[in-house]
Design brief:
With 291 residues, the protein is mainly β. Helix content is 13%, strand content 33%. It has helices at residues 18-21, 33-41, 55-63, 110-113, 159-166, 171-174, and strands spanning 7-17, 49-53, 66-71, 74-82, 85-89, 98-105, 125-128, 143-144, 179-184, 206-212, 216-222, 235-238, 241-247, 251-252, 262-263, 266-267, 277-279, 284-290.
């Protein structure tokens, strides 16, 4: 008698960042499907972020015949299913079954181009379909794919919460952590459950989403000589120093595309995300370009 082994996707997590997906001032979500696919050709979240299951999670996955699979836009967990029912896991999952994944940043510019408070660098973000008991009821749950709710500083754990989620982690796993993703079988909200009430995988497995907005900054142009600007120009003199011009509004930082910023009918260059300069006195963030 022949036996077959089949795996089905249990759940997935999409990692989307508009710094890489937008094109200049063209928003990814306003693009046609063809334009979006073109942007996605160049996209791989692992260029700025690394996600790995903890050792404890690897043990759980092995014990439940699961597989972790990275893809360019995120990751998925697959599970072995019964031979006669491809919606039923071969090994049952109890209500409190959970998997935890470490989120680590591998691009030092990440906070430069992400719309997050720079002062919160080093804090621990938490993405889960259940809230920790250490956190208030206002603490956000992980989003579903398509929600397009930006990851914000509200996902940062309290000190007690951070210690709680690190309890079962190895010392090496705790270093350089940006965040933790913990997915429970039974969520705080039924819409976020992994399996149905009968323990089966839904027809459409849950796909969660981490959706990062790109940062917008004021663009500061530093010249070697005095400059002359006029009313229609997109820049103005900053603090009476005619060698320093600043954009009249904020512009988005993107990896691809070009934003038109004009002075005297000449297009000025766009800054990269290499360096940004917060100004506490004005509560503004600048990107500088030396001309």
């Amino acid at each position: 008698m022949a036996f077959s082994t089949e795996y089905k996707e249990l759940f997935g997590v999409e990692i989307l960042h508009l710094y890489f997906l937008n094109k200049g001032e063209s928003d990814f979500n306003s693009m046609t499907e063809t334009e979006q696919n073109k942007q996605l050709e160049f996209y791989d979240f692992q260029n700025f972020m690394r996600i790995q299951p903890t050792l404890e999670t690897i043990r759980k996955m092995n014990g439940h015949q699961m597989v972790f699979n990275n893809r360019s836009s995120g990751f998925a967990v697959w599970i072995k299913v019964e031979e006669n029912d491809d919606k039923m896991p071969a090994i049952d999952l109890d209500e409190d079954f959970s998997l935890t994944f470490m989120v680590k940043i591998n691009d030092y510019r990440f906070f430069n181009y992400s719309n997050l408070d720079i002062q919160n660098t080093g804090q621990l973000f938490y993405f889960s379909n259940r809230r920790l008991s250490t956190e208030p009821n206002s603490f956000p749950l992980i989003n579903l794919e398509g929600d397009q709710n930006n990851i914000a500083d509200s996902f940062i754990l309290t000190a007690n919460g951070a210690e709680t989620v690190k309890t079962d982690m190895l010392s090496g796993e705790k270093s350089n952590l940006f965040g933790i993703i913990t997915i429970f079988n039974t969520a705080e909200n039924n819409q976020l459950n992994i399996t149905t009430g009968s323990g089966k995988i839904p027809q459409n497995p849950k796909n969660f989403e981490l959706y990062f907005e790109n940062r917008q900054t004021f663009w500061r142009y530093i010249f070697q000589t005095d400059q002359t600007v006029s009313g229609p120009d997109d820049v103005k003199v900053e603090k009476s120093d005619k060698r320093v011009l600043v954009s009249k509004k904020k512009y988005p930082l993107t990896q691809r595309g070009f934003v038109e910023v004009q002075m005297n009918d000449v297009e000025l260059p766009n800054p990269n995300a290499q360096q940004i300069k917060p100004d506490a006195s004005s509560n503004k963030i600048y990107s500088e370009i030396y001309m």
